[in-house]
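User: Just a sanity check before I run the rest of the batch. Below are the structure tokens for the first item. I only need the designed sequence back.
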């Protein structure tokens, strides 16, 4: 079964994968906490996908929020390990 991966801290879409058939219970597949079976919508250039775990849906955001964050942090020569939460 195809699954869609996202960053557990930010919800940002990371890609797709397939659930391991070995990781099944009688009720169905066991999904990692940073994955969903809900397919993301298509986005336009400059947009990003963010999974809202509480609402169980994908949200389309403008990518400028992340670009702005990286520009601010490049000034001190450090890059963060993860993106900040988008609200």
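Assistant: Here's the designed sequence for the first item:
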């Amino acid at each position: 079964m195809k699954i869609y991966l996202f960053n557990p801290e930010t919800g940002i879409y990371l890609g797709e994968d397939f659930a391991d058939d070995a990781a099944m219970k009688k009720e169905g597949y066991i999904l990692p906490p940073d994955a969903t079976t809900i397919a993301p919508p298509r986005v336009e250039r400059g947009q990003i996908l963010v999974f809202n775990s509480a609402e169980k849906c994908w949200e389309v955001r403008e990518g400028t929020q992340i670009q702005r964050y990286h520009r601010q942090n490049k000034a001190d020569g450090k890059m963060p390990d993860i993106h900040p939460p988008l609200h």
